[in-house]
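CpaE-like family protein structure dump, as promised
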Amino acid sequence: MTAAASRPLPRSFAGRPLVVTADDELLDELLRLLAAAGAEPEVATGGPALRRAHRSAPLVLVGADALAARALRALPRRPGLVVVSAGELPAAEWAGAVEVGAERVAVLPADEAWLLSRAVTAVRSPVERGWLVAVAGCCGGAGASTVAAALALAAAPGALLVDADPWGGGLDLLLGAEHADGVRWSELTGLRGRVAGDALLAALPETSGVHVLAASRAEPAPIPDEALVAVVDASRAAGCPVVVDLPRPGGPGDPAASAVLADADLALLVVPARLRAATAARLLVEAPGSPWSAAQLVVRPVPGGLSRGDVAEVVGRPVLAEVPFDRSAVARGERGQPPAVSARAPLGGLARRVLAGLPVR
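structure tokens r here:
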């Protein structure tokens, strides 16, 4: 069994590590390793103590000698379970490791360093992964950037607003942050793989409690998919909620949309309440393989246009919210002031309704 990518443990796993073994020598080794990781474990081999600790422990270390125990096999599978063996595990016991759902078989002493690192990770206070919302307009001028900015401001402090349209003039203008110190996309297009989220966020301009990564007006250039994914993943791993303002979708194969939407908690299409706009949105969500197929709609009413229900019927997707009329929005934007998202502000109400629709983590 090879090492699997560590799955994030539910935040309810807040107890002490659990050791399940009746082998005294192995128990001494595991207690020593866990002490080095700063953890004081529970030891149980059966009964209510085993069931309780198995449910709440951030890490379960099962000795190879305990794999045949009926009490262990009766428990439900869970993440964060490692089988530990002093020496190579016999073939017959590998089946037992698979049956209990082990993420890895650690063989001592060869895997001691890995096991120590795994224990340190498990007992460290977990950081809840930030949510991700992707926003785009089904056509030009739909108001998607305003909606994205309002969502980020409503999630502040500590949210990140990502401008994924290199030709949109720079989303920092909408927040009045065009003169704020910090890096823009032109300095980050080479990012790949794992990035330190805290360091990234500290390097970005910040205004009204929102970090903003905007396109550069001096050096506009395409944003590589790998860089966009690296920024989003790093920020979410640091616990930061992320709103990505995607450019107008270019079709089902749009790589920027596919890269972000694959991991988004919520995808929003902003649709003006006009027949042509709603039809364009329907073509987008119904196209084979479209990353927008599961999107929900935010409708922007227009005088004499379609009703909310009409838009939902034409597009074939549910309407999550409507963009309310805000007489101050245009003037604030032209003066370089961010959208108002207070409790009484129309866009504030919209943002809170949308964020309330996020899946419970």
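The two ends are 30 Å apart (CA to CA).
lmk if u need the other ones
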